[in-house]
Amino acid sequence: MSVETVPDPVLREDNDAIIEVTSTAICGSDLHLYEVLGPFMDEGDIIGHEPMGRVVEAGSASNLSVGDRVVIPFPIACGSCWMCRRGLYTQCETTQVREHGSGASLFGYSRLYGSVPGGQAEYLRVPHANFNPIKVGDELPDHRYLFLSDVLPTAWQAVKYADVGEGDTLAVFGLGPIGQMSARIGRHLGARVFGIDPVPERRAMAARHGVEVFDFGEDTNDAIRDATEGRGPDGVVDAVGMEAHGSPVGKVAHQAVGMLPDAVGRKMMKTAGLDRLGALHSSIDLVRRGGTLSLSGVYGGTASPMPMLTLFDKQIQLRMGQCNVKAWIDDILPLVEDPADPLGVDDLVTHRVPLSEGPEAYEKFQKKEDGCIKVVLDPQAKPGTPGGESEN
């Protein structure tokens, strides 16, 4: 990972826009680009899929004007195809990456999703800008809106897919940014929420928002079952994905893929079971019979083993998928603009640093050092200064 000078993006279609990025976050799924998705990355790829900023150029059909403040969702969708009309924006038939059998193109996320230049940059070209951008107001700071790009709608979809609400119980495996917000949204919707994570700082953050927190250990599931009349929670969100702790075989597979020539690694990715499944198997064990398991953590293997007997016997409902961001914005936008901050958006960012310090921030985030839970990069900050407003 490095910071380089590249040519400025340019308008290509009349519904494109160019934004000057004011804030752009590092996502947990960006860390997958280090290891298991490495064979699908190319030198010079610009990554990042959680940006916001101001429009500096607007195509004639973009429905935007220079100066508009916008958040850019991570999926690139046309808004009008068969899938988009059904709210399945991550399956957009206009931007699907058919070469790899993938859904809609994503910003900054490897060949699998179109190799579209991403948003960890000073400027970003936004395709299909007549649909994708979310216009926001000028009164609130960036961090109140930034997470509309991914974290908040992904967490909202995860909880909705878990099918819990007032009086239900919800467990969340993994208290990174998605897990934090999934737990808070569960609470907001009236559920009793249990959060599981091995990192003390993450548990402490969740506990501040009324979540009952547990370390990830052998007795954790039994303790939560004891708290739910022996049944287990009504819904479970797996917000961990392919990098789960306690999955040594999967870890070795990730490392092996990273050492193979790219062409061989890509073939292995498409045919092998490469995921670390510790959190997923624990989720299946924990959820009550007839309950719902919602996967928001990213998985990458195509032949990962699944305990089908248990899934069938427990009558578990299973829902998953990339987040259809625009489908949830009408529900979430009033909450991030509410002065009471009901989802605690003010309490998520732990590090804001200049874009120039991105590689160091990635390393800190990956190693979970210095209480690092959510990193925001500031393309406008001068090197060596903390994030915030500054001259270019």
Automatic annotation (TrEMBL):
Species in which this protein is naturally found: Corynebacterium halotolerans YIM 70093 = DSM 44683
Q: Which family does it belong to?
A: Belongs to the zinc-containing alcohol dehydrogenase family.
- Its recorded name reads Glutathione-dependent aldehyde dehydrogenase
One of the entry's Gene Ontology molecular-function terms is:
zinc ion binding
Output the Gene3D superfamilies linked to this UniProt entry.
Medium-chain alcohol dehydrogenases, catalytic domain (3.90.180.10), NAD(P)-binding Rossmann-like Domain (3.40.50.720)
Q: Tell me where on the tree of life, at the top rank, the source sits.
A: Bacteria
One Pfam family for this entry, by name? ADH_zinc_N
Domain annotation Alcohol dehydrogenase-like N-terminal: ranges: 14-134
* Swiss-Prot/TrEMBL keywords: Metal-binding, Oxidoreductase, Zinc
Q: Which cofactor does it need?
A: Zn(2+)
**What InterPro entries does the record tag this protein with?**
ADH-like_C (IPR013149), ADH-like_N (IPR013154), ADH_Zn_CS (IPR002328), GroES-like_sf (IPR011032), NAD(P)-bd_dom_sf (IPR036291)
Q: Which residues does the UniProt record annotate as the domain Alcohol dehydrogenase-like C-terminal? A: 177-243
